[in-house]
Amino acid sequence: MTVAIRMLAYGVTADLMDEYLRIGETTARLSLKKFVKAIVAIFSDEYLRSPNSSDIVRLLDVGEKRGFPGMLDIIDCMHWKWKNCPSAWKGMYSGHVHEPTIILEAVASYDLWIWHAFFGLPGSHNDISVLGRSSVFAPLAEGRAPPCNYSITGHDYTMRYYLVDGIYPSWTTLVKTIPAP
Questions:
Q1: Can you list the alpha helix ranges (DSSP code H) found in the chain?
Q2: What is the b/e burial string over 72-102, where b = at least 16 CB atoms within 10 angstroms of the residue's CB?
Q3: Pfam families of this UniProt entry (predicted)?
Q4: Which of helix, strand or coil describes residue 13?
Q5: What's the CA gap between 162 and 76, in Å, rounded?
Q6: Which of 13, 48, 163, 178 has the greatest number of CB atoms lying within 10 Å of its CB?
Q7: Largest CA distance in the chain
Q8: Sign for the pseudo-dihedral over CA of 136, 142, 147, 150
Q9: Helices 2-9 + 14-21 axis angle, to 10
Q10: d(CA 37, CA 105)
Q11: Would the pLDDT of 11 be above 60?
């Protein structure tokens, strides 16, 4: 099953899959669908969701204990080379590396819980333009984000933040890491 999933994910042709696994493409795809449904059924309540109020309290508490009061998590984008990108799409998915890539924007907590993922944008996007399409800040923009009160060097703050690298814009909710620690 794992081999079938990898082969489908990397775009292996049906002929090679038939030859290697000795099952047809339709059977392999059906198996993949059942596998994904099982993963969602088992893990969706705990891991495949946005953080609720108690999760946010826990994440903020961990951040404060580690010296980052008000930090919710870390946000970043990764660019994956798309080896088997269809020829017709190569121009749209090629960006600064001049090869087709797929972007994954993710927010991950200290315990490796990836509670936000925005996946599959054309490679011509970068970390900043992905933020404009991402839903990670929607609750904050709509005024639905839980309150977050903390104090740093005598200044009181009410908005949680994310740690980011130097490419991100100077927003109140984004705190850039130390450039030269």
A1: 2-9, 14-21, 25-43, 53-65, 127-133, 138-141
A2: bbbbbbebeebeebeeeeeeebbbeeeebbb
A3: Plant_tran
A4: coil
A5: 10
A6: 163
A7: 68
A8: positive
A9: 160
A10: 23
A11: no
**Residue-wise burial string across 112-150, b where 16 or more C-beta atoms lie within 10 A, e elsewhere:** ebebbebeebebebebeebbeebebbeeeeeeebeebeb
Residue with tokens 């993922």: 117
Residues contacting residue 160 through CB under 8 Å, at least 6 positions apart:
56, 60, 70, 71, 72, 145, 148, 173
The predicted-structure confidence for 51-103, as pLDDT tens digits, reads as follows 888 888 888 899 889 888 888 888 888 888 888 888 888 888 887 778 888 88
Distance from C-alpha of 88 to C-alpha of 63, rounded to nearest angstrom: 45
Q: Give CA 22 to chain center in angstroms.
A: 34
Return all residues near 164 (Cβ < 8 A) that are at least 6 apart. 74, 75, 76, 174, 175, 176, 177
- Residues 134 and 144 sit within 8 Å (Cβ to Cβ): no
Question: Hey, what are 177's tokens?
Answer: 């890491």
Which token pair is 163? 């740690």
Single-letter amino acid code for the residue at 168: Y
pTM value > 0.85: no
Q: Residue with structure tokens 């969602």?
A: 40
76 near 106, Cβ under 8 Å? yes
